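debug: dumping io for the single-chain case to check the tokenizer round-trip. Nothing else runs in this session.
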Amino acid sequence: MKKELKRILFCTDFSPNADYAFGYAIDAVLKRPDCKLYLLHVIPETDSQFWKTYIYEVEDVDNKAKHDIDMRIKEAYTDKLPEGVEMEIAIRVGRDYQEILDYVEQMEIDLIVLGRQGHSSLQDALFGSVSEKIVRKATCAVMVIPHSEEEG
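debug: decoded output
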């Protein structure tokens, strides 16, 4: 017997592939009237102490970054929500795949929707992709969306 999907998580790094995957998340929610959509964006935590020190010397950097992320979410996702679809937005800072897995457990997510290829293709080739880690470690279903045909 398959599990009823009530909570769908869409993960974005604002890459074209993530933007394309959003359509699949919307489709999944629209087919389930009592389903809620969650959006998660993880800001990679900077490992370098120098960079942390430098970035926090810039005046009001946290508020500007939050404003920029909020605007990107609004333009790319919130403004494109069909009528009647609710979306809860979360932003986390840390190791991307770990923050996603922690959020899944915390929010009792039933399905994760994410793009296969994000912004860091070189890093993915060297260290393994976020989507691969999510697929291997998630406790719920995962829908991994490849590039759209327009992207090549």
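debug: round-trip ok. Residues 123-128 have pLDDT under 50 and may be disordered.
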